[in-house]
Amino acid sequence: MRAFATQVKNNFFRIILRNPRFIVFDVGVPALFYILFTKVMNQGMPASFNKTYLVSMAIYATLLSSIITVANNVLSDTDQSYLRFIDVSPVSRPTYYTAMGVILLGLTVIEIAIIELIAKFYVGVSMGIGNWLAILVLATVASISLMVFGVSLAFCGSGTVVNLMVNVIVFPVAILSGLWWPLSLMPNWAQTVGKLLPTYQTSVIVNEVINKTTISLNAIGGEIVWLLLAATLLFAVQKIQRTKTRK
Amino acid sequence: MTAIIQVTNVSKQFAQKSILSHINFDVAPGEIIGLIGKNGAGKSTLINMMLGLTEPTDGKITLFGQAPQSKTIKDKIGVMFQDSFGLDRVRGSELIQLVRSYYSHPLPFSEVVKLAALGENLTTMVTKMSGGQRRKLNFALAMAGNPELLFLDEPTAGMDANSRYDFWQQIQQLSQAGKTIIVTSHYLEEIEDVASRIIFLKDHHVLYDGPLAGLQKSFTHTIVEFDSSLPEAQIAALIHNGDLDSHNQSHYVFVTEDADAVVRELTPEIANVRNLRITQQSLDQIFREVIKEGD
Fold it and tell me: Does the domain spanning B5-217 belong to CATH 3.90.180.10?
């Protein structure tokens, strides 16, 4: 427990407090998008758009941190031979991943809270406290499967390959799942693909909760399937990596 | 005495290429083993197998009577890899605290800090430290768990001469404290000073396993060197019990198994011989010579 607590403390310093990239990228980009589309380029949009787009940008922030920040941190720890040290120490990799997960969930909460503060005090979105909390909690919980994908990606090759893969995945996923602009504006094939993505499922669930409509069991099932897929991928990638190293 | 490490008939192949073949040795508590061999001899592979990071193709390795992958033995092991490890945006002192937290009976923080010998640089971000500073920090981290068994793979690479001297002093102290240490180094004269036993790897096998004195006895030659104004042909005609190793201006170096005989052969011209010196080969010289053989 002492090892886990110290690991979490160190992760807080290195992943959040001393990481300007986190402030600029994970928090700054979604916040900027939100302000841009709700205060500057919002002509002809219905009043409900500010609320819907808040959900989209909250999920977009979790996508950025869960895939890009996670993959980069795990990759850096691998490159710095830290994971190899973990393997010869009494601490297990699951402890390392869990400690990183705790901090990344915290990071996700901070990101979403900042966007919510902008929505409330700058854009003027009005909702009950339950809805603000629902966005915060649901988007954070849903980011777990994305984080597991982020860890898996870190083991898929060199730094260049991982960075390329991360960018190739994150931005198309954001666009196809309707986080940047409504899915209905996209061609049919893109809508079909988009509706299968985990970020779309999260968006459906969060919007249904805050609009007090029936919660889609399909979307919840979709989230569970994505979590299982992510866990299977991580297990397989770790297995391949260990087999390669040990053989 | 029960062996801490048992390596039994271990072989390792990578892509059909033999790296190590039929390696056997035991390590008793308190021994300091100098693992030597040229680059690519399989030293790091052998260490990685002993740590459970790589599996042998054949054979068996046990540490404290258990498989190297066993979690229960990790608490007793300290490792300093050839490549220093670190973490982005973490200070040296924080990394020490983090690694200490991994072990059930760690050394006190102040003691680990003393081992790191980083002074004010202890609060520097690990990734901003110089190569030598990171090596010193990695040694302290290897010791942070107060291990019974310590693996040091090229520990002094990148350290300056003073740091290397201090490092080996610390190793001597650890040896006196009864720690078991496996060390590889390119600075063979350093291993020579600390190792109680040498394991010499060559051509995928253990070429020699025993005390340094035995290695010298098995492989060494005595060196007879002197200055003389006599021409090389005349010196060569005098000496039959030694091989001329080098002749530079007036300085002659002979390698022999019988130094007394060489001196006797020089006697007729002893008036023309100055600065006569007889020395045993160092581990470094033996190493270079044995490595050369068969290459």
Answer: no
